[in-house]
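Title: Prediction job returns without error message
Component: structure pipeline
Severity: low
Priority: P3
Assignee: unassigned

Description:
Job completed but the reporter wants confirmation the result is attached to the right record. Sequence as submitted:
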Amino acid sequence: MAATEATGNRLERRKAETRRKMVDAARAMLADGRSQSASIQEITDAADVGFGSFYNHFSSKAELFEVAVLDVLDEIGTALDSIGEQDEDPSERFARSVRMTVRFARTRPELARIVVRHGLDYLESDRGVAHRARRDLEAGIAAGVFRIRNPRLALASTAGALLATLQLSLLHPEEADDRSSDDLAENLLLMFGVPAKRARVLATRELPDLVVGQSAGHRPDQ
């Protein structure tokens, strides 16, 4: 029984490792824009797994790349959640998430490219940055710190500004300093009715260290 169980555990670990390798390969292809043209053979070659392994885990390329995008969103969301307090001012949590997400263009460009290319497709997802922005906006409305009539429009405005700033930071890395993320957060807070003095404080407050990339088998940017 013990030997059978050990063998089963090894097989499960190998299956999980194979799946992880393919998801990581898909993430790299999403980041550099190759996802549309990549063949299954190219994916398995990049993952260094056998071609026949693909259909043991995914029914199609579309499924793999969707899993890869959601993997990125979950990774970012988990990281942002790790530095927040559930009972804190939602405007502070919102500003911090915006600032740290924009900084990914410099600290984690692979993640930033995937978010820029695919973020709008997941605007109403319950995962990733959009979900947390929606949560903080709604909490801010309830607490009276945001003056927003249309939460859906506020989320769209946030997403558009955030993705555009990320894109500009990726295109012009020499200009992608901390001030860019701070200015964006301050402008969004002002747009949502936060007083100017409070918005400046929230947009310039010292940020905690953000650890991203703790999912099993994740490889940091090369």
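Comment from assignee: result matches the submitted record. The first helix runs from residue 2 to 31.
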